[in-house]
Amino acid sequence: MSDTPPDRLSVNPKSPFFDQALLQRGIGIRFKGVERRDVEEYCVSESWIRVQVGKTMDRKGNPLTIKLAGPVEAWFESSPEGEGDPEAEA
Length: 90
What we know:
By secondary structure, the chain is mainly beta.
């Protein structure tokens, strides 16, 4: 498995960009230089994130989100399963 996160990822299971295995591994997002923990979806190449607006819901019961534009950085927070950390083994 690559050590680079996907260009686009969503936490919504109905989205075509949803990937449970990658989400369980943990994805870190930095938006405009600030680390964010409330990101619902992101796209690095298009430079945007989607975040929930308070506790507001749409008519289907999904959280209402807003798209924010700006520089986005993504990284994995843990190593892939089955692969040991080479520094820890030395």
